[in-house]
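Exercise 7.
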Amino acid sequence: MSTDLVPLLSRIADALERLAPTPAGVADLGAADAFVWHAEGEVLEPVPQVNRVDIELLRGIERQRDTLVENTRRFAQGLPANNALLWGARGTGKSSLIKAAHAAVNAETPGAVTLVEIHREDIPSLPRLLHRLRDSRRRFVLFCDDLSFDNDDTSYKSLKAVLEGGIEGRPENVVFYATSNRRHLMPRDMIDNERATAINPGEAVEEKVSLSDRFGLWLGFHVCDQATYFSIVEGYAKRHGLDISVDDLRARANEWSVTRGGRSGRVAWQFIQDLAGELGQRLD
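Solution. The predicted structure, written as tokens, is:
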């Protein structure tokens, strides 16, 4: 009877093996200069071409640009560098600057820095990602876009320990860049409410705002004025060879910003896309 069951048991074993999740493989960290971290399955997915804006097209944020590029350059050279928090108004070039700084430093020294994007919801898996990167010879900029925490979210505590203060500490070959609309990464009413509910309100507030203290660089981004907005639009139009006069371009760009309720780099790019489509021209 036992001999008769062997084929059946073999088929069952094969079926279970096919159903089992594929074990996390060891990523070839030299396969690309950018990766996306997927916490489910612990996979580093290579990104062949990063969606980025050329650094010379980022206008009105020259101080922030120079500071971040210099910090990234020092990190690429093996010198001490800070974690960076880029905070401020939406659409002002925060995430674009991180990707552009990565490209600028790698243009100087190819392969000097690897960009790894981690999604906000995958922050609890950050210790496992750092464990994967710690022993690599490459240097990594971890990038988290739109990082913020809600009232009932406690994952910020693990992020605090990972960035600075944990027993292992941040690996020497890793630096963390994040963007946020909030300077302290917490909703303002959450911090205010602590004054009404905590036994020691001051200590409760300190716990919340101390997360942003883990970032040595705070770079603020603010809504641009009209001159800067026009400069951004004209830079895009020139780069993509749009056939339109400067006066007409400005008039239409201004009208577009009014309908959008504000001026920013994102609004400028959305206008350029609409204009290029109307003119029947492609954007390279």
